[in-house]
Amino acid sequence: MRGAGGARSRGEAPSEEEVVRHGVAFVGVGLLSFALLALALAAFVLPPAFAAGLILHGGRALRIAGCALGGAWLVGVMVVGRRVMAPRSRGESD
To answer: Distance of CA 75 to CAs 43, 58, 70, 79, 85, Å?
Structure first.
């Protein structure tokens, strides 16, 4: 049975099994980051696209809904932007 430090703490090279396990973890994290990036882009791009489609191609009620959707998206972007770009107070740390 190995100690808490593993092969690296004893100066040994890691086994092939350990290297493969870490490689699989890196690939998994990379794939999850791509999915997160796609969701972030979709959240940023799709609401204005839907709003424009409703405004341009909808009837009266759908045009109102499109304006409401576009306005809500714009307000949300402004709120998040102000919160992210606000100066930090002196007591806050990273």
So the answer is: 14, 23, 9, 6, 15
Summarised one tens digit per residue, pLDDT across range 74-87 is 999 999 999 999 98
Let me know if residue 10 belongs to a domain.
yes
Question: How many other C-beta atoms can be found within 10 angstroms of the C-beta atom of residue 78?
Answer: 10
Other residues' Cβ atoms within 10 Å of the Cβ of residue 54: 20
pLDDT value of position 55: 94
Q: Which domain holds residue 71?
A: 6-85
| Residue ranges of the chain whose pLDDT lies below 50 | 1, 3
In a domain, 73, yes or no: yes
